Amino acid sequence: MEADPRKEPKLASSDHPLPPPPPPSSASIRKIVMVASIAAGIQFGWALQLSLLTPYVQLLGIPHTWAAFIWLCGPISGMLVQPIVGYHSDRCTSRFGRRRPFIAAGSFAVAVAVFLIGYAADLGHLSGDPIAKSPKPRAIAVFVVGFWILDVANNMLQGPCRALLADLSGSNQKKTRTANALFSFFMAVGNVLGFAAGAYTHLYKIFPFTKTKACDVYCANLKSCFFISIFLLLTLTVLALTYVREKQWSPEQGNAAAGDAERRKTGHLSRLRCRSSVRYLPL
To answer: Can you tell me the distance from the alpha carbon of 216 to that of 224, in angstroms, rounded to the nearest whole number?
Structure first.
């Protein structure tokens, strides 16, 4: 007995594509604000780096030429680290999500780097650098290692933060624009606070233990500023990553998302063809 062709299911063709799936939902604005606030902690450290580290380099005895080479690590790390981190973050299958592990690792690396920079003179003195002699080679080595780690860690933080904001915004263009605006706003806040902290020369009195035999008033003030930077960044990061949760990503989800995007593209092209055909129908 032959089946009734009228009852057979019709397969979708290129002329009649399947309707596109619903767009991914966006998160609440509160979660977007929490993630964007991490930018204040990142930029606070950048401002301190710009305002305090060049004079500190000269105190350690690094020549001007080598100081310029040290600052090259910023653009070099930005050129290399962010694409690599972005590639692996997009494919991360951790149960903590795609972005949160990189944000947490970057914040921890910033804390380690800032500690090395602040205590470079003390660690150099413990390793054998004389206090009255300049340059101090061991302190310089510790400083350079910490400086490069700091730049790599900062670049490791920024990319996943922006990507997480894009994930939370979903397909909501208004929330995407709001997330970008909030990230820029918190960057400006971090800049203002960082440069203000770097300009204040009595912060070391809050942390009197920072002034040591190998570390003078300027060095102690730098340590105090970086302690505040560590506290601010880690606090904002812990609050954001605790409040905002990510679902575990799998390659199958990525293939499905690519298929959804292709179906949307096919649907749009079909509608355009239809409209152009109707437009040129003979009257």
So the answer is: 12
**Residue whose token pair is 């350690």:** 60
Give the distance, in angstroms, between the CA of residue 212 and the centroid of all CA atoms in the same chain: 34
Query: Is it the case that residue 223 has pLDDT exceeding 60?
Result: yes
The helix (H) or strand (E) run that includes residue 36 is: helix 29-36
Digit-coded pLDDT (tens) for 95-137: 889 999 999 999 999 999 999 999 998 898 888 888 877 788 8
Per DSSP, which regions of the chain are E strands?
A: none
Residue 187 to residues 77, 79, 92, 281, 283, Cα–Cα distance (Å):
19, 20, 27, 55, 59
Cβ contact 37:116 at 8 Å: no
- Domains of the chain (ranges; CATH) run 26-246 (1.20.1250.20)
| 8 A C-beta contact, residue 153 and residue 229 | no
pTM over 0.85: no
Per-residue pLDDT, 216: 86
Sign of CA dihedral 82, 85, 89, 90: positive
Q: 113 and 155 in contact (C-beta within 8 Å)?
A: no
DSSP 231: H
Both tokens of 50, joined, read 């710009």
Alpha carbon of residue 255 to chain centroid: 26
Amino acid at 202: H
Vertex 20 angle, CA 15 and 26, to 5°: 160
